[in-house]
From TrEMBL, chain B:
GO BP terms in the entry: DNA-templated transcription initiation
Boundaries of every RNA polymerase sigma factor 70 region 4 type domain copy: 111-162
Family membership noted in the UniProt record: Belongs to the sigma-70 factor family. ECF subfamily.
Recorded superkingdom: Bacteria
Gene3D superfamilies: 1.10.1740.10, Winged helix-like DNA-binding domain superfamily/Winged helix DNA-binding domain (1.10.10.10)
Origin species: Aquimarina aggregata
Name of this protein: RNA polymerase subunit sigma-70
Segments passing through the bilayer: none
Length: 302, 172
């Protein structure tokens, strides 16, 4: 009874007499016999052929096959399309020539893209694009913050993990860190897409979203982002963001003790004098800062 | 063109095909999926397709055309919902000298068996029921499903083993 077809042969009465005798002596025999007997008691629903045929004829009169000849054409076409896609994808993987440009802490960098657009990267940021196809599709990926002066031409797309920005020749600033996305448009027109919401910004407009909420619109009063001129400014943002920006711009470590990181801050700090920056940021918030060493600062409530 | 070529478009030929195959295909689909209504719908669809394409299909190929359409259609239909099998049990004997307790145990056993069958793998269930209820030989089933007789034997074996195991564990 160890073979995997034994019971199959038993039911077909295809066992040798020895096999049969042995099986009928075993404990399993009765159990299997019971099952088979019970299955024989099951009935099946009735299929009425005459009625079915009558219905079938009625059905055939109105039946229309959904575009039968087209299906065949489409299939052949689909196969070739699939083959082309596979080949193209393979070529793309083989020849994809990604180029990544990044900045460290306390560093900004100006990059001239192949299409003559200019990107200014803020500290601790990076852009990635495909050298071979960039001139055609003008798509790049951004981590962090950067200012774009886009040359006139076809659509220019900035992909970030928090949403995509598409433009036609313009100047704009994108901030995409953690969950937050903020776009300032300084010239021309920008389209911002986040999940399902789409916002079109004209010059002097900005939009932001921190995480789940949809994109909020606001006015931009400046002509260039402040960080290009060596300052970071904030309008009603949690103090935690200010601390992060300080860390990025000065490459320092800031330890917060009992500070409420959700308190809102409005103001700015410069990028050239750390002491001044700490003073302008924390004095008005009633926070004391002490240097543990050159690169580590500790904050405490006064 | 030979004069006596049989055309599927001829009503008599079509009717003959229906009488010969509709019921079998319907039960095959029923054993496979356990839903009589759906099985009937698929049969109707398959025969309608045969009718629409009658001029392109030679008589000898009609059977395999029908089975092929039925199999394809059933795959599409079943992906959407898996139905629970229901098998009607034969009427209880009116005169019996069996005790009520025994009868109750019997009914319970039948119900468990019913469940166990509905939990069989599709391939095992169709083979097992085609053989046990439809009384088809292994060779007929093998031809119908386009598999070897050996494969049918194995599926029968596995189906029985799996029923036995399920009934055993549910008795504990």
């Amino acid at each position: 009874m160890n073979e995997d077809d034994f019971l199959g042969r038993w039911l077909a009465d295809d066992l040798s007499s020895e096999e049969k005798d042995m099986f009928e002596d075993s404990d399993d025999y009765l159990a299997y016999k019971d099952i088979v007997k019970a299955v024989d008691r099951f009935d099946r629903p009735v299929f009425d052929i005459d009625k079915g045929l009558k219905n079938q004829k009625e059905f055939n009169k109105t039946y229309k096959e959904p575009n039968a000849p087209k299906v065949i054409k489409l299939r052949t076409w689909l196969y070739s399309a699939a083959a082309v896609v596979v080949v193209l994808f393979g070529l793309r993987v083989m020849f994809f020539d990604a180029s990544e440009i990044s900045t460290d802490m306390a560093q900004t960098r100006i990059i001239n893209l192949p299409d003559n657009s200019i990107v200014t990267l803020n500290a601790d940021s990076a852009i990635t694009y495909d050298k071979d196809t960039f001139e055609e599709d003008r798509v790049l990926t951004l981590k962090g913050e950067a200012f774009f002066d886009v040359a006139k031409g076809s659509k220019f797309t900035v992909q970030t993990k928090n949403g995509n920005i598409a433009v036609l020749g313009t100047e704009f600033d994108v901030y995409a860190r953690d969950k937050k996305l903020e776009v300032h448009c300084f010239e021309g027109k920008v389209q911002v897409t986040k999940d399902k919401s789409v916002v079109v910004l004209t010059a002097g407009k900005g939009t932001k979203s921190s995480g789940q909420e949809s994109l909020l619109l606001f006015d931009v009063t400046r002509l260039k982002p402040d960080w290009l001129n060596g300052t970071s400014s904030f309008d009603q943002v949690p103090i935690s963001e200010v601390i992060q920006e300080l860390q990025r711009q000065y490459n320092v470590k800031i330890n917060t003790q009992d500070i409420d990181l959700n308190r809102l801050f409005t103001g700015f700090f410069g990028h050239d004098d750390l002491k001044k920056a700490l003073k302008t940021s924390f004095e008005p918030m009633n926070i004391r800062y002490t240097f543990k060493n050159k690169k580590t600062i500790e904050l405490q409530n006064k | 063109m030979p004069e006596k070529e049989i055309s599927v478009c001829e009503e008599k030929v079509y009717e003959q095909l229906y009488r010969e195959h509709a019921e079998k295909i319907c039960y095959y689909l029923y054993y496979k999926y356990g839903d009589m209504e759906k099985a009937q719908d698929i049969v109707q669809d398959s025969f309608a397709k045969l009718w629409v394409n009658c001029s392109n299909i030679i008589f000898g190929a009609a059977k395999s055309f029908l089975y092929k359409i039925a199999k394809n259609a059933s795959i599409n239909a079943v992906l959407h919902q898996k139905t629970v099998l229901k098998y009607q049990s034969i009427e209880q004997k009116t005169y019996t000298n069996e005790s009520p307790e025994f009868q109750m145990e019997e009914n319970e056993f039948m119900e468990k068996l019913n469940n166990a069958i509905s939990e069989l793998r599709e391939g095992q269930r169709e083979v097992f029921l085609l053989n046990r209820i439809e009384k088809k030989t292994y060779r007929e089933i093998a031809e119908m499903l386009d598999i070897s007789v050996k494969a049918v034997e194995k599926r029968m074996h596995l189906a029985l083993v799996s029923l036995r195991t399920k009934l055993k564990t549910s008795n504990l």
